[in-house]
Amino acid sequence: MMRPWMAFLQLAELFVSTMVHMLYGFYIFSTAVAGDLSLALNEYFSKSNINIQINHQTLKSKTNLDDLPPIVLVHGIFGFGKGRLGGLSYFGGAEKKDERVLVPDLGSLTSIYDRARELFYYLKGGQVDYGEEHSKACGHSQFGRIYEQGHYPEWDEDHPIHFVGHSAGAQVVRVLQQMLADKAFKGYEESSENWVLSITSLSGAFNGTTRTYFDGMQPEDGRTMKPICLLQLCRIGVIIYDWLDIGCLKKYYNFGFDHFNMSRRNMGVWGLMECLLGNAGPFASEDWILPDLTIQGSIKLNYPLQTFPNTYYFSYATKQTRKIMGVTLPSGILGIHPMLFLRVLQMSQWRHPSDVSPPYKGYRDEDWQDNDGALNTISMTHPRFPIEHPSRLVERDSDCQPLQPGIWYYKMVDGDHILFIVNRERAGVQFDLIYDSIFERCRKHVFRKKLPTLPNELHHHAS
After folding, report:
1. 8 A C-beta contact, residue 31 and residue 425
2. CB atoms < 10 A from the CB of 40, how many?
3. HEC sequence for 406-436
4. Residue 417: closest CA among 311, 343, 332, 322
5. Distance from C-alpha of 333 to C-alpha of 222, rounded to nearest angstrom
6. pTM
7. Could you read off the pLDDT of 370-394 as tens digits, one per residue?
8. Contact predicate 279/132, CB 8 Å
């Protein structure tokens, strides 16, 4: 009798989760459309005859701006950059807080690897090259979008960049820095890890999340999906969206799978069926974001990633749970976004299947129960698995002055996973406190120190 009852509960949970996510997606989309319509109407009726006399002053300010290293805001899963969803800002308008901020538009569901490649060419310019070996293995085109003009073509060791990543965006930046250190971009053999001045993570996905298993990833391998789950519905929707290839919609929002050539013009009806059946496309090759966000996938991704001695690292780990009589539970009802409340509750009660090998030696369920509705708090502080990187908990900023590179400084923040994005009003004064401190640190406290001199060079100078 239990099996039908459990199946009914699972289907009911799937229905509720699907409806909540669809309603939130519709809310975001309609908000963006309403904002664009309002802006267009205002421009039409006002027809302001502003005299554009910015000449010398504008040129002067632009010259000053050129001296500032850009702060690059990198969005997370289902995110979008400047130019998508009309005038809507993924970072809630935080980019207006500084004079030189870039907000790249990367694939919202593409793999961490693919997004890191896209971010490089967004900054340097040229055609995105995903690499011949990777492209063949994953069954997509080697080349992607063309950036006629890079957004920071002078980027190099003498002109390093500050990166701020939300959620999976933080891991994208870590992978990019390792690619720079490994000189992984053809034609840019002079690249190095020192092209990155600082990395700041907002609810960063460093060590994976148990949420992936609730959404449908198999805890046995962290790569494949359960037959019936939220991610299967998402997969079908994304394939159909990309196959229909409606120009105006794709310009408004794009999942980032253009290099898989899933358009109806390229693959026809038979190609659509192959993708839906799981025989082709990104979901068949596992070259998409969710396998990278499982605990197993993150450990695999983390193996080659280093924390470099000349880069500054900071992270803000969010938590929306608390312990009551030894039991981890959501810290409230009203403060948690409706889209995340169910997942906060589920993740707080997480138990790794007893018949499945743990993802790493020393794994404990209780370590993974605090969460923000999307990521486990243990995952957000700093890279921990398979190797723990140097870190320091910060309670007061004055405690860690002067800042040292090569250490992950992390703060704990009460809030859910989307508190500091999209809807600025939700975070209230916390929004300004967080982003103001990030931008102030980038501009006033983080500078490239002179790179250390090698011992043999010291000896040479002494003689």
Report:
1. no
2. 11
3. CCEEEEEEECCCCCCCCCHHHHCHHHHHHHH
4. 343
5. 30
6. 0.91
7. 999 999 999 999 999 999 999 999 9
8. no
